[in-house]
Amino acid sequence: MNREEIYIAGLMNDIGKLLNSKNDNYDYVNKLKSILKNNQFFQKFNNSLLKEIFTVNSSQQNMVESVFFDKGEKSLSQKIIDAADFLSTSNKEDLKDKDSLQLRSIFTEIFKKENNIDEDYFYPTKKLDLNNIFPVKKDKLESADLDNLIINFLNELKNINREEQLYFLLEKYFWSVPASKSQSNSDISLFDHSKTKAAIAISLYDQYKAEKITESELEDISNFKKDQFILLNGDLSGIQDFIFNIPSKKASKSLKGRSMYLNLLLDIIVKYIVEELDLKESNILYNGGGNFYILAPESKKEDLNGLKTGISKKLLAAHQGDLYLAVDSICFAPHEFDNFTELWGKVKIKVESVKHRKWNEVGLKDNFNKIFGPLDQGTAENDHCHICGVSNDIRKLDLDKSINENNENQKICSLCESFIDLTDDLKDANYLSINKTNNNSNIYQSYNDVLSSFGYYFSFSSTLTEFDNIYKLNDTNFMTDNCSGFKFGAYNLPQEDHRQITFEELAENSIENGNGDKKLGVLKLDVDNLGAIFTKGLESDRSIARVTSLSRMMGLFYEGYINRIITENNWDDKIYVVFSGGDDTFIVGSWNVILDFAEKFYKKFREYTCYNKYITFSAGLGVFKHNYPINRSAHLTEDYLDEAKTIDFNRNDDVVPIKNKINFLGETFNWEELKRIKSIKDLLYDLVINKGYGKGILRKVHKSTLGFKNILEDSTRGIYRNIKLWRLSYYLREVKENDEEAAEKLLNEYESIVIHNLTGKSEDEMINNIMIIPAAVKWTEMATRNFKEG
Ligand SMILES: [Zn+2]
């Protein structure tokens, strides 16, 4: 059996087992056999592949053996696949019953002992599609329709013509089928198990060929203590400055292109590493949000240093030190798969320390000028790019055509120009093609020149092109177009009549019926305690399949679901996603919509993660004039996010520090408080706009803050005095004079806050911050700007 076959068999082995266990209802086994015989892609492999796919590991061998094979010695490939199967999941149980269990959400399992989730949540047994990714409570779950899934899988499988399609078909159909039939451990999908199993299998095969492991050692894999694997981690730094250090006039035309370029740059570096180490798609355990993990055989260790230096040299030449990819790895033995989360954390720490020794691998001394820039900068005025500052002896400079105002003789370099073109290509992209090239010029005039130095180039298009290797964007029906696979991501941009909307127009879109501030909202959010969730959250079962399941499911929300929430709420012309991936999101948009977005996105994230109290995100939200420098608003928003994540040291009794807040207009609130701010704002808005109150009412409500303060404080301590609420109505007397009903509504709102607190909420849901009233008033003021009274 050759290397390719080991890989395919590793991927398909558990699917074979599944079909075999379901073969009573339909003749799946013969259908798959006929596909393997007649499909051109599979034909190039010999018959032993079939045997490997249907061979089950030793615990159940007897059951199936008599059906397919003669009894006999296990082949080498069987030994490799069995060992890989064993290492991929720590639960060694196999398919025993034929009832189809459903996949439990892995988010219910994070810090399971402490998270207090008493409901069971499962995924619908349906193909991967953004409509199906939310977990459902057990009593609302439709029964599993595994037969339907398998029939559709086999129908598509018969048309495949390249290896990558197989990988993506497995993801599409088996992302929500549990790998194990044990009730206690059904949170690993068959896809994640098969993927990691194939990655381990091909690594073991390479180790065997390099004479680092013997057949008998393979048979006793759990006791083999010599290093056999490498876990490689890469992390891109310089992202924020690279994207945002651009003049504001250019912002909407460049930001997206720049952030998407970084995304694709990492995709292509990952492809380059996989190609150089002769690995497979499955070896990429994770890639998103500026960082990646790759599993490789230990025998490739020697190749890594050269690879790292090569990557750094190319990046240095292309970006003069603005972008740095820190890469490091650890070697580990088979038995360490039992505690894979620890390896995940360990290599991450190593990579962090590489960042403190940036550019060491290329020789800091020799490249000092390249990294820190030549000393002659700022001599002649017109020989530098006005966006990135590169001089004309590094890249071609041209007059910047897009500026036709006062600074008409400003120059732009060809690379910055190409990011503007990329932004334009993205606005209605449905396909991404990534193809190989030998065009390695070492001159980096455009982004594709940089990527070509890694052996690839790419292009986006709205319709299908003639390229070989195309991915369908945000749509898993890729086989109908003969694509290689699919990709989720926030690719599209707000547009109007096929023209991209500018930031000024986004700011204008905040104005409703002539009312409201013409401003931009800037939002940055990311998952709290992500490192701890991965390294400690999985508790007892710390297998590789579980870690990859968790990271894939987390990415699906930020890369996939974000598109759905924007479209469903008709925010397509109001929200500009600068980036969203891994565990974080950065968006710019109409300020009032951004607030609604933050609230809804949070609500859906909580639902997606089964209301696990340890899986939350925090956010920073700023509101700025549309022409305020984008790099400054980005930094300020980053500061707001830091502010939101400030830990309350009075609460250090939990497994992770609880953050889970949003900083809005410089004040930090919890998400329940944000909800209340919004409902008070809605009430006030209605009073001002529809009920004919002057804006004077806002001042009057603001004054009620003081009276409410004591009542609110009392309520958080379980104290409620009717008399005080009566006094509050005194503070609202000016409102009352005009309209009894309005005052009543406000009082009701305050009262419901008090009752909310009195019904014993957890600290995260307690409404503590009296600034909710000034914030609601401020929000209403901004939303009613320019409203003509009378
Ligand atoms: Zn430039």
UniProtKB/TrEMBL annotation:
One term of GO molecular function: transferase activity
Gene3D superfamilies according to UniProt: 3.30.70.270
Pfam short name (any one): Cas10-Cmr2_palm2
Keyword Hydrolase: yes
UniProt xrefs under PROSITE patterns: GGDEF
Keyword set, alphabetical order: Antiviral defense, ATP-binding, Endonuclease, Exonuclease, Hydrolase, Nuclease, Nucleotide-binding, Transferase
GO BP terms, alphabetized: defense response to virus
Chain coiled-coil ranges: none
Family: Belongs to the CRISPR-associated Cas10/Csm1 family.
PANTHER family reported for this sequence: CRISPR SYSTEM SINGLE-STRAND-SPECIFIC DEOXYRIBONUCLEASE CAS10/CSM1 (SUBTYPE III-A), CRISPR SYSTEM SINGLE-STRAND-SPECIFIC DEOXYRIBONUCLEASE CAS10_CSM1 (SUBTYPE III-A)
Protein name: CRISPR system single-strand-specific deoxyribonuclease Cas10/Csm1 (subtype III-A)
Annotated organism of origin: Halanaerobium congolense
